[in-house]
Amino acid sequence: MGMFVLKGRRQDILREIDMHPEIREVFLKVKPSTRLLAYLLNNTNLRRLYISEGIYRTIPPKVVNALRDMKVEVIVIPVKRGRPHLIDDHVIEKAFSLKKKGMTMDEISSSLGVSKRTLYYRFKKKGYL
Question: Does residue 26 contact residue 6 with C-beta atoms inside 8 Å?
Fold first, then answer.
């Protein structure tokens, strides 16, 4: 059985738990209440609980220790936050290779259909500038 991702409204999460009592690994994308954790532990065979760093910081250490005492491995996963880029990295790399070949930003921008502002921003973020 693979890892389940539990997110959304509480009632949807509880319904998902009821439909899959064989769950052993869960990636919890919401801040868990004690009721939700108790329901998850009572109605599944949970062995691994994956949570983001932000959610981990909101859970009291006593709760984390109690989970570990119940032989549930709590694994903190770094999650990329923020809005995803619309332009893939391979497009930016292609743009940079064109820049190294001597093309101007205007030419690169028009040939790839990416704004100059985006190119400058992503070049700077990647350390190309």
Answer: yes
| Strand order, beta sheet including 73-77 | 4-6, 25-28, 48-52, 73-77
Q: How far apart are CA 25 and CA 45, in angstroms?
A: 9
Residue 48 DSSP code: E
Average pLDDT over residues 50-73: 92
Mean pLDDT throughout 30-40? 91
Mean pLDDT of the chain: 91
Q: Indicate the burial class of 128 (C-beta count within 10 angstroms; 0-12, 13-18, 19 or more).
A: middle
What pLDDT band is residue 84 in, cutting at 50, 70 and 90? confident
Helices (H), 20-78: 34-43, 53-58, 61-69
- Give the start-end residues of each E strand in the chain: 4-6, 25-28, 48-52, 73-77
